[in-house]
Amino acid sequence: MSNGLLKGKRGIITGALDENSIAWKVAEKAFEHGATFVLTNAPVAMRMGKINELAAKTNSVVIPADATSTEDLEKLYTHAQEVLGGKIDFILHSIGMSVNIRKNIPYDESNYDYFQKGIDVSALSLHKMLAVAKKMDAINEWGSVVALTYMAAQRTYPFYTDMADIKAMLESIARSFGYHYGVEKKVRINTVSQSPTKTTAGTGIKGFGDFFDYADAIAPLGNASAEDCANYCITLFSDLTKMVTMQNLFHDGGYSSTGVSQAVLDKMGIE
Fold it and tell me: How far, in Å, CA of 17 to CA of 197, rounded?
């Protein structure tokens, strides 16, 4: 049930592909909580998804933009402010892509051109979004930027290959830019480290199903759903968390703090 946490706030939500996307759920929840926002994604991704359906459902406008292009981002912020009637209060960065993973290339055999592409799309895009916004003064004071990440930035998961390094860079950018943007404009920047989630992107990772079940057995509360993650993002966009910044926030049912669970020991036949 909505209680209007985002009433009067304006936002930009990236990366909504289909109803399985966390970004899709964030858009639905933001709309329920009274926000107005624009949806954006790269033109090639938009052709693959259902973003126009989401726009109709949430009374929002779709603005195509390549987040690796500063020119596209300048147009995005300009158009978004025109559509929404003022500066931006919140941004969701939900952009991730690894060609090495798509092509099943092992980490120690990474194609470096693909690796660089992944860095540009999945991490440097956050820096560019923030840099362009800051230059244009497009985000209101006490605005909130949230980027989605994963715990492979801190611990090794063989199947996550180069995305682990890329997510580590993403989190570092959030901390570093969080300092500068916080000092100058009180804009807060955080990353949310989500449970394994059955999104279109997540299920494309080799061995995802088995790992999803493993994480669910480890986490005391089980895996957090995409909808749960959306609810958490809404709190971070709201004024209730205005003093939270430069943090990597685990939203994973306790998985990140659990060494091993009794359920896993039982499956292994260990008493």
Answer: 14
Overall domain count for the chain: 1
**Residue 157, token pair as written in the block:** 């998961």
Sheet containing 139-149, strands listed edge to edge, beginning at the edge strand earlier in sequence: 61-62, 36-40, 10-14, 88-93, 139-149, 188-194, 248-251
User: How far apart, in whole angstroms, are the C-alpha atoms of residue 195 and residue 68?
Assistant: 26
Q: How far apart are CA 51 and CA 15, in angstroms?
A: 9
In a domain, 113, yes or no: yes
Handedness of CA 169, 175, 176, 182 (dihedral sign): positive
Query: Structural domain of residue 42, as residue ranges?
Result: 10-267
How does 75-86 read in b/e, with b if 16+ C-beta sit within 10 Å? ebbebbbeebee
pLDDT in tens, 219-253: 999 999 999 999 999 999 999 999 999 999 999 99
On whether residue 2 sits in a domain, the answer given is: no
pTM higher than 0.85, yes or no?
Answer: yes
**E strands within the chain?**
10-14, 36-40, 61-62, 88-93, 139-149, 188-194, 248-251
What is the rounded distance in angstroms from the CA atom of residue 33 to the CA atom of residue 1? 9
Strand, coil or helix: 125: helix
Evaluate whether residue 63 is within a structural domain: yes
Find out whether 252 and 219 touch, Cβ atoms under 8 Å.
Answer: yes
